Structure formats: structure tokens, C-alpha cells
Write the C-alpha cells for this entry.
Amino acid sequence: MADENPFPGENNTGHFWDDNIRELKNPPPRWWMIAFWLSIAWWVLYGLLYPMWPAPPWETDKTDQEFTKGVLDWTSIKEFEQGMAQVDAVRAKYEDRIAQMSAEEILADPGLLQYTLASSKVVFGDYCAACHGSGGQGNPGYPVLADNAWLWGGSLGKIAETITGGRKGNMIAHQNILSKQEVDTLAQFAVDLSEGKEGSPEGWNLFNTKGCSGCHGPQANGTLGTLPNGDPITVGAANLTDTLWRFRPGGFESAKHTILYGVNQSGVEQTRNAVMPRFGGAGSAEGRLDEQQIKKLAIYVHELGGGQ
Amino acid sequence: MTDPTSSAPVVDGLDDLYAESEHWQVNDGGETIHAKRLPGRWRRIKWWAASVWLIFFLGPYVRWNGGQAVLFDIPNRQYHLFGATVLPQDFWMLSLLLLFFAILLAVATALAGRVYCGFFCFQTVWTDIFTLIEEWLEGNPRERRLLERAPWTPRKLGIKSVKHLLWMLIGFATGWSFVAWFYGVFPLWRDFFTAQANGAVYAFVALFTVGTYVLAGWLREQVCFWLCPYARIQGVMLDRTTLVPAYDLLRGEPRGRLHKGADARSDAGLDAGAQKQGDCIDCNQCVAVCPTGIDIRAGQQEGCITCALCIDACDQVMDKVNRPRGLIRYASLDEIEGRGAKALLKRVRVWVYFAILALSLVGIVYGFSTLTNIELKVLHERSPLFVQLSDGSIQNKYTLKVLNKANDDLTAEVAVRADVPIEVKGIEHRLRIKHGEVTPMIVFVRIEPEHLTGETIPIFFSARATLANGTEATAERESAFFAERR
């Protein structure tokens, strides 16, 4: 830095290097200064309008509010709630109609059915898909919902009943009741029926005399009779005459296992587990769905492919 | 120097010629360019080219079947083009259209430089109109510069106010016309002034009004220099064979002033000391008329929008001084340097460009000729891919989406066909579809195990509907039926 300013009268700072390189005091362009002050004004304004400043400690203690309230009284949670309210408002006209109509009436209304299917998909994914698969395709031990086999009935009403109250099958373990030979005969009998064969006379004999028909029905098709409205009377016993197996994989060994250890038998270690939890009913610990949701879910499940 | 008093000028108005060119500088954006207006051949061509934009203003008034011929109905997501309705589903055609125009821009640039910039670009055209108004009100460039420097008097204030008002009006007309393409011009007339149009309409009109006013009125050539991305793209697409307004430096140099009293046709017009003078008399008229304020004699450059106004100016001067025209002319670099022009059809680029142009055009024509009134989509359910039913048959689930592109609501009937016997559930009822909407339906197909010939079986869906005018619209889709591996 030179002591004497070699460029007097020039708008410089008095800082010099290499004799002639110097720092000038040229102001920034006007537009730049305007933008600069505008951004500061914007920052202040923003701080007034929106929550920006950390709230004083006494405020934080009282309300858990971490930031000052802006003049606009805006918060992200409020915006979220408004958004949700908007969505609900859009849905309201459909939901209201669904509430007033029976499941059968909804099924007959194409527009409302579309809405029901679309809006139930998420609920199905949340509560049902973990066991029954995302498309109702079932899992080992969990029934397929997309076929037309229903142990407890596949009408809209029966499906809703199942979702609401849950289901728990019951088949006693026959390991101490039947001889090995009898178990083999009955297992083979079940395999034969599922393949569309007649079933051996010994099989039918055992089926009738050992109490199987009491639950599986006289025709071994899982139904004990029919109600006036067409719903079958069942206790959730499997239909032995169709090609499907309740417990997968099906076949001789699987049938033997079920006969030996039963279904849902406490104290029997290898018993089959088949419990559908209850999803409805106010106040119940498991009751997570309201009536409207259950109505919609029943329609959804009914429409997965095999509703009756 | 020749004695100025010696004789009468050979060239009429030679003094004026030079006087007018006294003011010029290399344009660096610091000063408003006031270009001189001259009539001429290219000027005329420019007007014809610019008049294409009349479509922009008048297009919305063209009627077709009782509606606006071309209406981009964004709220309802449908685009009406002379009776054809294009829905977002047909947007692949738009990409072809964009491709077509992009390549058109490329091919035009490769052949004739930035002709788009010089003749069709809205910035050029609007600036041209704006400066025309300026010339009417404020006079020629010299008078305009004087007025700019003059103190504010009521007269100056009046002139300027009228000018800016007219500019604003043109900006408003621009915004108005733009919105009319989307809103419908008659509804716009009705709603706009009765304050019934929605905020977006007012916002867009305001945006275009201000945008036009600022861009064409104030920024002018600055847009071409600093803002426009196409200027950059087009600028680098030129090559040696591209035709651009070019200064024939072999003929023009060394340039020098033509002196009063000298015979322009003889060598007596030479500057003292110069051996041989080129045809350029250094009158700077080419610079004076340039809307971007550049000197074309410095060669092809960023600021040149190839509007060819310098050619007009130079030709007029050449006529005055009795030299052949074409000192500045549309020519390629090869031509200027005496290498000769390469035939158009021998250039690979041209062939590639035209091939793409042709392909996109074919695609658009195909698209429009096959626009159907209904469209069918088939989505095969993937989870599960198939389900075995209690009787052993296999069931597949399909979601059909039927789109109604007709102008009325339709009732569609769906049919399913396969080479093996099938049982179909879900197509019993007819499907009502509002116009412009998609209605889904779920269809189950069942096949008995003995008919399952393989893991997948082709299966055909079709939707049929009768339009209001009695014609039948059909749409078909092929899908597959899935079964277990056996």
C-alpha cells in the first residue's frame, strides 16, 4: 500500500498493489441494491406472515409451540388438515350414499361400485393383505379370497359378518381317536373326492360313523343345509368335494395332518391354525373398522372374483 | 480530399447518405437501437412472412360446426381441431408435431441460416411493428435520438404517451388473442369485461400485455442477444454451405468513402493514396438499417438475425452509385470465398432432416386418420395372475378401461373372444360412458382345465358403441389368459 494516493480524485479506497492496481469504490448497480433491500424486506415480511422465529421459552412451555405464530396463522399441520377436509368433502357425497344403501344396492350401481372398489383398496391393503395377499390370492394357511370357495358363505352379508366378528374354525384332533389305518383311509377318501371320484365305501362308512358328516355335511361338501335366503348353513368346515384345499399344499399328507391334529385345538402342538380376527364391533380391542368400512370391504372382497 | 465546391454531386443525396450514418456504434446493449426503415424486396418479403401472425389474432374467430375451429380446452382436457377432438391420450401426436417443427427449424437453419429469427420470430415481428409505430410518431432515427435527448416538454410527453399506449394496446391484443385460443373468443368477449372470467384469464392477459410491451418495446434486440435460447441453437447450426446475408468482401474491400463530385463508375472516386477501391463505399447504410445494430461486414455474427434488411439498403446504394447489386446478398461462406455452392441434395444433413420431417408428418397424418371415438385398454390382474375355482377351472381377472372420445355420452358393449371355449362374467351389462371420460369395468374369464392348451392363451376384447349420428365405433385389444404351468 502506498502512503500517497497516486490517483487522487479517483473514486478509490486508497489500497494499491503493484503501483497501479487499486480497489475502487464503485457502488453496486442500482438494480442490485434494489434487489438487496427488497430481499431484506421480503425476509422481514415473511417472518411476520409465517412462523419463523424460535418462540420464547415461556411460550414453548405452555403450548409446545416451537415457533412464533405468523400473522397469517398458518401452520403445516393446519394446511394438512384442510387438505384432508377437502378430500373428505369430495368423498362425502359418495360416502353418504353408501351409508344409506345396502351392499346389494351398491353392487347394482356401477358408478358407486367403482368408487367403493377404488376407495376400499387401501383399507384392504392395510388390514387384509398381510394374510390374504394383496389381490386376495391367499397364503399357506390363509384362504384365497379371489376364488369361489367359501367356508362361511360368500354372500355380501356373510362376508361382512366374517369381517365384523372374525371366524375360528374347530376340528378335533383324531390322533387318539382313529387308528392309523382309519386316518389313511379318510385322507385317501378326501383326496379321491377332491379329484372328483366317488370315494371308497370304507371311506364313506368312516366319514359317517366317526362324526365327520356332522360338520362337513352329509354330502361332504361343507354345507349342512340351506337357509330360506339361499345362504348355506355351515360351521366353517371344508368342502371336501371341490378341487381346492383349505390348508396348502393339499393332498394326502396334508389331509392326514389335519385329521390327526385337528384345527385350532389347544394343547395339540401341531394343530392347524385358522383364526380370522374380528375387525368390527365398537369397543372391542380388535374392532378397528367401522360399519361403513366393513360394508365397503365386503363389496371389495365379494368382487375379488368369487362372491356369491 | 476533393474540393467540395468543385462540382455538383453525381450521386443524388450523397450527403444525406453519409449524414444519416454518422451515428452508429457497435451494439453492446447500452443504447437503444434506432434502425432506419427502407422499402425494398426483403422488406416486402418480411411483411408477407410476418403476416403469418395474423392467424394468431384472427384464428380464434374461425368457426367450425358452430364452435371455435381450433380450441385448446384445457379445463376439459380436450382439443378441438376443425371437428376432430384430440384428447390427452392422443398426445403422442403432439410430440410428433413438436418434433416436426423442431426439425423444420433445424432444416431451415441449415439451409438458410436464422430465417426463422429474421422473418417469423414473434420477437422480430412485434419489434418491427413497435418500431414502425415509433417511426410514425417520433420520426426517423435521427429525430428519435434528438427527441430522446430533448428535455421533457408537453409535446414530448404527448408523443411518448401515445406511443406507449399503442404498444400496450398491441400487447393487450396479443394476450387477448393468446387466451382466446384456450378460452373461446366469444365467451372471452362476454366474460372478460363483465369480470366473470377466472383469475387465470386476467393473469395471462396481464402477463402477455406486460411481456409483449417490455420485450418488444424496451428490450428489442437485447432479447436476441441475451435472452433467446434459440439464437444460440440456431447460431451453431450454420455451416459453410448455409445461405446467410453475407458481405462479399472480395468485391467490397478495400472500402472507402465515395467523394462528392467523383464519378462513381470510374476510378476517379478513389481515396487519395489508395490503389484500387472496392465496391463498398463505407456509407454504413447496412448498419443504419440493422434492427440489432450490427455491422454485417464484420462477417456472420451472434447478433445477425438474417433479416436481410441490410441487403435492401446496400442494393439501393449500389443502384445510386451505379455498381451491380449484391455486394451484400444471401450467400454461403463457400460462395463468398469462391469455392462454389454445394448442391442441396448432395448434403447428408438435408437428407437426414427431411427424412425426420417426413416420418413425423406421416405419424401425424396416421394419427389423425385413425382417431377413433372409443378406445379400449385391457389391464390383466397381476395379483393373483390366475385363480383356481372349486370346479377346477381357471379364472383370470381383467380391468377394461373404455374411453369415450365422442362428443356425446355413449353406451358401449363389450365382447370377449378366444380360440377355446370360455365363460365370461361381468360383460352382461352395457357400459355408460360420459364423453371425454374413462369408465372401467371388471371382467372375469374362466376356462375349463381341459381347454387349457398352454401357460398363456391369447384372448381378444372388443368394445362397440353406436354414436349419436348412427355410425358405429369399435375398439379392439389383445390380451392373454394365464394359467398354471402344466
Summary: Chain B touches chain A at residues 381-384, 387-392, 395, 397, 429, 431-432, 439-442, 444 (CB under 8 Å). The longest helix of chain B spans residues 154-183. Residues 1-9 of chain B have pLDDT under 50 and may be disordered.
